[in-house]
Specification:
Layout: H1 3-21, E1 25-27, E2 30-31, E3 46-61, E4 64-71, E5 79-83, E6 87-94, E7 105-106, H2 116-119, E8 126-132, E9 137-142, H3 148-153, E10 157-163, E11 173-182, E12 192-193, H4 198-203, E13 208-211, E14 224-227, E15 231-240, E16 245-250, E17 254-258, E18 267-270, E19 272-275, E20 279-286, E21 291-297, H5 301-305, E22 309-315, H6 342-347, H7 354-368, H8 370-373, H9 396-405, E23 411-413, E24 416-418, H10 429-440, H11 452-458
Parallel strand pairs: 1-3, 3-6, 4-12, 5-10, 11-15, 14-22
Antiparallel strand pairs: 2-5, 3-4, 6-8, 7-9, 9-10, 11-13, 15-20, 16-19, 16-21, 17-18, 17-20, 21-22, 23-24
Length: 459
């Protein structure tokens, strides 16, 4: 056969083969915390990621602002979800109003600086580089422009998931949580605009340790949600720049943990998992009982005094076999005195003495209130209002309602405004009566007694 004719026969087949192997081109879906893009149900693709750096003044806590350096205008930066064997074209733009050059180091990248060398971008410019997603896993990305620590400390970090070719096991809900810390000139909660403090950062003395960029970003109306019986997957990152996270969900046990962001669930039935600065992990669990579950860094003063606290609100029918809630409440007399139940008190209030009530209330206070309001009742300035010498307690009915129902709106105590969230603690009528009686017997407070019947009337 004529060689030229043979070439004409082979060429269409060769072109068809190339077309069959060509990857489709798509633009990556980017989502902001706590949301996650949908799982990937496709083969390898040519994926374009477009991300902008900008410097934005935003809320750090109630009454506190900070100039954040951001990916995508928020802290943390958006969640990027790609697939193993994807070819990524990364376009990094730096807003013209930025005062600093920025770049990006993606821990998912195999190459110099994780992309930082190729993405150094001056204000008003766009840099483009490409990489192949070789290794599946959950990875941090961050700015790596000098001084690197300062760029990270100001908010430049996020998560990129390289999903394995076969995908992750199916779950009902997925969420994105990223812990980080901020180093401000003034103490935690000091109102006004707060600048970055390099000396504190070098000492690793953080004023704020938060989830998703600010105090309260995952509480109350911002809480993540689920229904009983659902499976939850949380992609948890730690932007640092300095501290290791001890991630824990109060009232839940992680059924599976993908340690350090790998793609194998290599541990089961875990209470608290460590996440290094610049690292990540994946936790999965099923919600079995309704209620509010608290996400914390179990380096616990960070949770209650620096902001590392979030909420998962689970709705559904009660599950008394799994968790009953309180079924009784009795006065305990270790010396052998009478034991009186809540029902006894409701039927015959005279059975419980003032001394008994104060003694029982002290126990309730120490286990439920002291972490925020402190053992001396002085609270934490700017965060938790004082109970010692509190003018708020002068209104007996308002005090009862606050403990029964919690507080969601700003309140003023002794002339200072507080705008935090006080959750309803689920205490019984008797416990609330006892703890309020104890509080009022201390610290030059009004001194009135509260009964279970009075509490019941405020339900």
């Amino acid at each position: 056969m004529n060689p030229k004719r043979l070439n004409w026969l082979i060429l269409p087949l060769f072109v068809a083969g190339l077309m069959a192997c060509e990857k489709p081109t798509i633009e990556a879906e980017l989502t902001y915390a706590p949301n996650v893009p949908a799982p990937i149900d496709r083969g390898p693709a040519y994926v374009i990621v477009k991300l902008e750096t900008s410097e934005v003044e935003m809320r750090l806590a109630d009454g506190v602002t900070y100039t954040f350096w951001t990916f995508g205008g928020k802290v943390p930066g958006p969640f990027i979800r790609v697939r193993e064997d994807d070819e990524i074209e990364f376009q990094l733009s730096n807003h013209p109003d930025s005062k600093m050059p920025h770049n990006i180091d993606l821990h998912a990248v195999t190459g110099p600086g994780g992309g930082a060398v190729s993405s150094f971008t001056a204000p008003g410019h766009t840099s483009t580089f490409k990489f192949k997603a070789l290794n599946p896993g959950l990875y941090i990305y961050h700015c790596a422009t000098a001084p690197v620590g300062m760029h990270i400390a100001n908010g430049m970090y996020g998560l990129i998931l390289v999903e394995p070719a076969g995908g992750l096991p199916e779950v009902d809900r997925e969420y994105y949580v990223l812990q980080s810390e901020f180093y401000t000139k003034q103490r935690f909660g000091k109102p006004g605009h707060q600048p970055f403090d390099m000396e504190k950062a070098v000492r690793e003395d953080a004023e704020y340790v938060v989830f998703n960029g600010s105090v309260g970003a995952l509480t109350d109306k911002n809480a993540i949600t689920a229904n009983t019986g659902e499976t939850i997957r949380i992609f948890v990152g730690n932007g640092g720049p300095n501290l290791v996270s001890s991630f824990h969900v109060i009232g839940e046990i992680f059924d599976r943990v993908y340690t350090e962001g790998g793609t194998k669930a290599n541990q089961e039935n875990v209470q608290t998992t460590l996440i290094p600065a610049g690292g990540a992990t994946i936790v999965e669990f099923q919600t079995d009982a309704p209620g509010t579950y608290i996400l914390v860094d179990h380096s616990i003063f960070r949770a209650f005094n620096k902001g590392a606290l979030g909420m998962l609100k689970v709705e559904g029918p009660d599950a008394p076999i799994i968790y009953s809630g309180k079924v009784s409440d009795e006065i305990y007399h270790p010396e052998g005195g009478a034991i009186q139940s809540v029902d006894d008190e409701v039927r015959a209030p005279s059975l419980i003495t003032l001394k008994d009530r104060i003694e029982a209330g002290k126990n309730v206070y120490e286990h439920n209130c002291a972490a925020c309001h402190q053992m001396n009742g002085n609270g934490v300035k700017g965060s938790f209002p004082p109970l010692a010498g509190s003018d708020y307690l002068k209104d007996k009915r308002a005090s009862i309602r606050a403990v029964v129902h919690g507080l969601r709106e700003p309140i003023t105590v002794n002339g200072e405004k507080y705008n935090g969230v006080m959750p309803a603690l689920g205490l019984s009528d008797s416990e609330i009566a006892n703890v309020l009686t104890y509080i009022n017997s201390q610290w030059n407070n009004p001194g009135y007694e509260v009964t279970a019947a009075e509490v019941k009337a405020q339900r």
